[in-house]
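Exercise 7.
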Amino acid sequence: MAEPQGDVSAPSGLDPRGLGFMCGIEVHQQLATGKLHSREAGVLYDVTATTVPEAWPRTRRRLRASRGEGGAVDVAARFEARRRRRFEYVRSPNAGLIELDERPPLPLDDDAVDITLTVAALLDACPVDLMQTMRKTVVDGSNTSGFQRTTLVARDGRLATEGGDVGIDVVCLEEDSARKLEAIDTDDGEVVVYNLDRLGLPLIEIATAPDVTDPDHAKATALALGAVLRRTRRVRRGLGSIRQDLNVSIACGDRVEIKGCQDLEWIPRIVRLEMARQLHMYRLANTLRERFGQPPLPPDRREDDEASEAEVAAALEVLVPIDLIDVSEALAASSSAMISKGQGAGHVVLALVLPRMAGLLGTKSLDEDGAQLPRLGRELAGAAKLAGVKGIFHSDELPAYGIQQEEVAAVRSMLEAPEDDAFVLCLAPRWQATLALEAVRSRALAAFHRLPREVRNVVVAKGAPADGTTTPMRPLPGGARMYPETDVPPRALSAEAWATVLEHLPPTNEERRLRLGQHDLSVDQIDQVVARERDDVFLEHLGTRPAKAFASLLLEHPDHAPEFLAMLLDLRGAERLSRDGVKAAAEAFPHGADEATVAGWAEAEGHVPADVGDLQSIVAAVVASRLDFVNERGLGAIGPLMGLVMAEAKGADGKEVSGLLKDEIQRVLA
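Solution. The predicted structure, written as tokens, is:
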């Protein structure tokens, strides 16, 4: 394969085919059911770190990595275990002993299994005969047990998209993790606070084959998957209810899993930036190898020679030693606020020399669209931050951050580092600075090789992607991560049960429109009811009620229970609530109310329809009192006189008043 072409400062111009682009998508969708293994309610509470009720109990834990069934400790688990983090769990009302891992889990929730099988059928996937729940090691604290339960339900499906069919590798049913409320830095490590309300909610995980052809096709695939899931009308909606992970590689790089792609509009840009990053890191690797007299990397990872790479790694272990030096003294009088504050708190400044790497760490610069260009210094900082530090200082960007040139020279002198050497500084408690710089060295050595397989996270600012770039999160998990769950019995799927699923597939949107078309609805109402996924609710509660009025209520008040809205129309039909009173009642009772309460409120507030006989008398009196105006304006007087009648006849129906006014005016003008 020829050397890859393309300008990393212009990601939109990179050629996916020419670069050997490969991409697959993983979608995680919350289901609208109770929890998967505990039968607790699937409720999410609107609380933050500062608004958690004091009555909610809290539990503190530490997690440790353990060996899997094969006797090995997963690489991601081993990394997390070194971070010295502690975890505090806030027990919401829907978190019991199972959520605390103090009681065995219950079997899979029936509704969740049914929804997952339905989705598998919609994707033409083949179900497994026996659903075996597995444990997937997770030691970032988001699961109190140290693992996530996941069950393979189906595989080998197919999804139709605008850019061509995409294979579906697996459809799984798994538990969601706890929600992070805050992280508190301490000198002894980080304390992470989680809310247990989300822990155990059922998720469908759908993983596609690497059939995505380009960045725009990635977005189209995510949209198509979302449409399949929403077709069931049994999945959760709203922010955070669906998450997309992108698996991206180009030939000169390797597979990277990108998390945090919540906004589908950002997917093409995130993918293009990852292509640019992988291209940059490949070129940087060969620049580094040239400086150190090592053989270049081939342009295609399939051409890598394992023995040759092992020799390069062994040579670099000697050429880039792990020699951490305390340079706090050189910065003791620094004018940098960060340095003085840290040293005042008892922190040290440790330094790591990176031989012959001066000028290759890079400084901050932007691509044509305003995103940060990839650079090694940012990758090193990302690795250090995983140890819990705020960041690092490196020689390519100094002087900066209040550190003066003479202080840089003093550090270089103390390190006895020539000008072609780079160095990295870390300000933190000694144990943490040591861990951070060890991670920096590992990342620097990795830069000489093929791009590392890892999980990365989209950089978020103010709740949205900052620019589409990513930072390292953890190593890509290996096979040692998964082992059988012995507390949940396997669940068999019979041919009859699968046939029942196939016979009861949810209708398509076109079929839903046809169903609604049988009722007295406008085309716009039909489109809106389907788009907002209210058609099943509409048909279930319509009965003999006026279709247009009920559809309008459902669309205008999506947070109200449909039973309450139907009851308002029943009160109107019984002439106990006026037409305008229906809307007023919906606003007056945001959480609903019983029939007697609403009827009493309507009487007290004047929202009961006026007596027709009395209303006719009021209309006649108003017209008679404004006879000159009526003679002058004719039917044009209806609008101005409406207000006078409505003021006299509180609770009157506006449409009825308009009709009576028209009749009376026509009578006096005849």
